[in-house]
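QUALITY CONTROL LOG
STEP: pairwise intake check
CHECKER ROLE: data steward
CRITERIA: each record must contain a sequence immediately followed by its structure tokens, with no blank fields

ENTRY 1 OF 2
RESULT FIELD BELOW
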Amino acid sequence: MTASEKRSASRKRSVNRELVELAALFFATGIADLFVSTLSNNRVGPVLLFALGGLFVVAATLRHHWSHRTPRSGPPGQGAAIEWRLRATVRDVPGSLAALTATLAAHRYDIASMQVLTAPDGAVDEFLLRAPEGTTGAEIAEAARSGGGENVWVVRADAHDLVDLPTRMLALAAQAAGTASDVAQLLGALLGQSCTVQRKTGGRPRDERVTGTVMLLHGRPGEFLEIRRPLLPFTLAEFARAKALLRVHLAAAAPSACSVPGDSGER
């Protein structure tokens, strides 16, 4: 379409719109004249007009006060947000994550953070939710299942879950590099304070594995670590993070392979 044709079409639409507006004005004028003529032949006509005017004034006043009202503050603790940790497996197809998050939003669960972990049978989505006070884990699990989630696990969030993952991992790596750090405390800070760590003798590095709520890691020579976390199973991503953190700690705790004479600063 050329520029002249576009201007012609725009001019036609403008003329049509003006004709429709003019017709609406005539219709409104005719209806108003008919209304006034009908009331003029009736004694209650003026009273009805005054009543309608007063009703409109009252409605406008109430609307003004309603729109400028001060929100009421509920009793202490009412509506307070409680953090929950939700993990669910969804099908690895487009739209699965959107359906799950939409369902959580419909139940007024605020998603504070989220990470997606790959799994052999789909994708594992882990959420940090803020739910109103009084919400139970069973209610959150039911909402996740209705949104397409499977293998749903819901537990109360620990304090370390409120920190974003990269910052937490850097802080743990710095702590693991210290010789005075404790392995159980490091793994608890990484995997949750509900974890228990038991040291066992024997085991080989190739025996490291994760099965449900149990994780096996190779520690110092001749030592094996058995980590258990009730309720919430471990993921392969957590297994890899724990192994990397343990390697940093063991490398820092190992004695130096060689020493350089005169390393006291003398020249």
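ENTRY 2 OF 2
RESULT FIELD BELOW
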Amino acid sequence: MDKGNKKLRIALISNNYTPYRGGVVSSINAQIAALQKDQHFVRLITLDFLADMHDDPAHVIRIQTPIKFKRQQKHYAIPWFMVTQLTRIIRNINPDIIHVHHPFLLGVKALEVARQFGIPVIFTYHTLYEEYAHYVPLPVSLSKTLIVKLVRKFCTKVDGIIVPGQSIANYLVRQRITARLVCIPSPLQSCYCNLSFIPGDYTSTRAIKLLTVGRFTREKNIQFILDACQLLKDGIVLTLVGYGIEYENLRNYAYQHLKLSPQQIQFVVKPPQAQLINFYKQADLFLFSSITDTQGLVLAEAMACSTPVIAVHGPGQNDIIIDNKNGILVSTPEEMASSISNLVNDPHRLNRMRKQAWLSAKDFMPEIIKEQLIGTYRELVSRVVR
């Protein structure tokens, strides 16, 4: 058989999977679906958060975690004997390559096991990890330094690193990380593929529909968007879709501090996928304020639904947004508010931007990403003699 056509055996390793939601989980699901469609053998190894309450497909393998608990709406699971469990699973799977999605916990132990079996390891750099230092029960300056050192150490040991765009590649080079870097963005889920272009229908009488989607957490910087909407005041409806520990704080900030009304600011927690897609389609503009995301998959989801983006400058958005073409990049709430106002007052420009956003989403189709991913896998596998 031609080795270039040989189907690969792939083990994915992730600390987060269902019941978690978010960009990493969406990315993993889209990746698995595309690889399985091409008849590659794929298994996802993750943590057991819910015991027998998980409703997993056959390709998911849960590491046993005797200690499970929930804190601040988040599920936690503490595994024991990770190396022992991973060794048994990896031996049974016998993968050609291991693809790790986190540089901590399972990721570190999977790298250790991979070295025992001579299996190449590739790592996707999903986020700016040091920006989550406030979750570590240490002084932030200390925890940031520690996280940077741990991530750098992990990155020096893997065989390759997937980055979603050139901004993160440049960032890792500045961090003196010398592993092979490959730019491959995370793919869209199939439900966002093959959507038809939706032209805008703008009238002077209806409110402008604004949307943001993401976890309600400190690092997502959602207060920035609320500040921008407060400057606009009348004539807008902002829908915030997500969940997280900052939910009540954001409601209080919007309704009590900024004095915005529930008619202007609407919160929707964990809607079904079909409803989320409708929110995307019905929005005039998608707003994004995180500066910690390396891609921000929600940007591509919005664009697939013909919705252009106004976003704060950041590594992920700088790679996907072509300023004033498929979206607008801003630095302050005042700039965001001004950009919204200018666009809605120029419907022809906004419709052109909608079309360019829809076209931009084509770069994130699973079939395209899959070919890039498989090519990278094969190149790494070819280097290793087992």
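INTAKE CHECK: passed for both entries
DESCRIPTIVE NOTE, ENTRY 2: The CA atoms of residues 288 and 311 lie 5 Å apart.
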